Every structure is written in C-alpha cells, then in structure tokens.
Amino acid sequence: MKLNTAKEVWIARIIAWVVIGAVSCGIIFVTTFMLGPTLFVIPNLSDKIAVAIYCPGAENSSTQDGASMPTTSDPNGTYGHTVEITCTFADGSTQIIRNEQFALASIGGMFGLGGLCGVGLSIPLFLAPLFLIRKKKEISPST
User: Fold this and answer.
1) Is 4 helix (H, G, I), strand (E, B) or coil?
2) Helix (H) or strand (E) run with residue 14 in it
C-alpha cells in the first residue's frame, strides 16, 4: 500500500499493528493450547525436556516407567502412570527426577513449546507493515 505522507504511513502501520496484535493473541492462544498438547505424541520429547530442565549437562539418562496409580485419595478417582528418570553425570554422580518434577517439566515444556511456535508465527506478521505500507515515491517533473 502506498500512501502520500509519512503521517499517513505511520497511522496505517499503527492500525495494522493493533489488528495484528489481536490476531497474534489468537494465534498464540491456539498454538499454546492446541499445538502444545499434540507435541506429547513425539516419542521421548517429554523425557528430553525434563532432563534438560533438571539435569543440565547430564551424560546419560534412563527412564523407569512405573505402574498406574490413583492420582487422588478417592478410590474411584483417576489413575496415572509414574515416571522416574535417573541422570548420570560425567563425574559418576547421579540425580533422580521424581514423578512430580517430570510431570511439571513435561506439561509446562509442551505448552511452552506450543506458545513459542505461536510467537514464531506472529513475529513476521508484526514486521509485514514495515515492508507493505510505504510512502509513494515522488516523481520529479521532467523538463
């Protein structure tokens, strides 16, 4: 879009950025809460996220999946499986990531990755008005 004055250009860009801001909020919301949970289907991604958060610099890790257990004290409540990860470091020391830590890291990590994908999609949208909305070039009269 070519406009006549610099003031018109900046007004148009600001209006575009407000609209893009609203659209970007929707994009980030959708990618966080729809794309994020779908990332759980990628094998071992939640394990890698938990190890990266709780055991940075670990040489090796092993995962032990436990039995399904009740998640509440109610006997008719929901059940969930347990996971415990043992990280081994270069000096031979080990660290254990408990089930609660694993759950926080994997759930937060998946939603966080979904949100980052949304931010990655939104940034080019915010840059677009700088390139698309410009001032008309003045044509010099030929003599």
Assistant:
1) coil
2) helix 6-30
Hey, what amino acid is at 136? Answer: K
> Chain centroid to CA 133: how far?
30
pTM, two decimals, is 0.76
Which residues have CB under 8 Å from 138's CB, separation 6+? none
Whole-angstrom distance, CA of residue 1 vs CA of residue 39: 39
Beta-carbon contacts of 75 under 8 Å, excluding residues fewer than 6 positions away, are none
Give the per-residue pLDDT at 104.
94
122 pLDDT exceeds 90?
A: yes
Distance CA 64, CA 17 (A): 49
Name the maximum alpha-carbon separation found in the chain: 93
For 129, residues 6+ apart whose C-beta sits below 8 A from its C-beta are: 12, 13, 16, 17, 20
Q: What is the pLDDT of residue 2?
A: 72
Q: Could you read off the pLDDT of 49-100 as tens digits, one per residue?
A: 999 999 999 999 999 988 877 777 887 878 888 899 999 999 999 999 999 9
User: Quick check: 122 and 24 in contact, CB under 8 A?
Assistant: yes
